[in-house]
Amino acid sequence: MDQRYATSPDQLPHFDTAALRDRFLVQDLFIPGEVRVAYTHHDRIVLGGAVPAGAPLPLPVFEELRAEYFLAHREMGIVNVGGSGTVTADGEVHTLPNGACLYLGRGTRDVVFADAPDGDEGGAQFYLFSAPAHTAYPSQLVLKGQGTARELGDQLTSNRRSLNQYIHENGIKSCQIVMGVTELHPGSMWNTMPAHTHDRRTECYLYFDVPQDARVIHLMGRPDETRHLVVADRQAVISPSWSLHSGVGTAAYSFVWAMAGENQSFDDMDAVPVTILK
Q1: Alpha-carbon distance 237 to 220, whole Å?
Q2: In the chain, N or C: fewer CB atoms in 10 Å?
């Protein structure tokens, strides 16, 4: 478990590129045969990747959580960004094709990741997002395209995108987690523009379907003190509540967005007009 301690916006002007990447960019999450996680002290979120690589892969009990099992006091959202796979939770098998989202509630004791018996070439790759939970909600699976769909942006401004909300106040019930997937249309590269902040939640982005020779430039920081991260395929960004977030790619891409914090209202955000960015 990689520990990422909380940061203040006052620190940002003093960070060089290496320091920014060390604190806010999570790399190497998807390693065959492993569960890799990072614990950020911003809203005590844990994000990670699980790649079964042909063999069942149990969710470990990380010592840093000081818990009997991972979800003893937590909930988790899982999105499969690879080939078809299964997640077995306390004996119940959930089949997740590419793009499917599974919610596991507090108290789920045994979690095992695996490739589906007739899975796609390349195998499953599960993205994990976990936050503390005060009560237990039932596990629930939603397939790609079955969430609450929203069409956003405009092709004229290169930000036409399809957004699917999966775990949210009008969808899969959770204590804190709000989670979904956004796909940019061909010819569009900007996401979340105009940029915004939401002081009541931390948000994490997992960028995927980024071509090998492409990158996403992720904007962060305060509106008058912006910085950027250059992000490759299947890398994640931790965006503290005080940081704006937006990004532009050198090609179309997708991303899993996931939030945890004080409320679950998707539209609780403070827009930042592009004309005031510095």
Answers
A1: 10
A2: C
CATH number at residue 214: 2.60.120.10
The whole-number pLDDT of residue 268 equals 67
Predicted pLDDT of residue 248: 92
Give the range of the structural domain holding residue 154, as residue numbers without chain letter: 2-133+143-276
Residue found by looking up tokens 């996403």 in the block:
216
Q: Judge whether 277 and 195 are in contact, CB under 8 Å.
A: yes
For residue 21, give both structure tokens: 């990447």
Q: Tell whether residue 42 is among the known ligand binding residues.
A: no
Query: Is the CB of residue 115 less than 8 Å from the CB of residue 84?
Result: yes
pTM: 0.93
Residue 198 in marked binding region: yes
pLDDT, one tens digit per residue, over 17-47 is 999 999 999 999 999 999 999 999 999 999 9
Please indicate if the annotation marks 68 as binding a ligand: no
User: Do the strands 178-184 and 245-249 form a parallel or antiparallel pair, or are they unpaired?
Assistant: unpaired
Backbone angles phi, psi at 194, to 5 degrees: -70, 155
In a domain, residue 67? The reply is yes
Q: Are 119 and 113 in contact (CB under 8 A)?
A: no
Tell me, what amino acid is at 277?
L
**Residue 245 assigned as binding residue:** yes
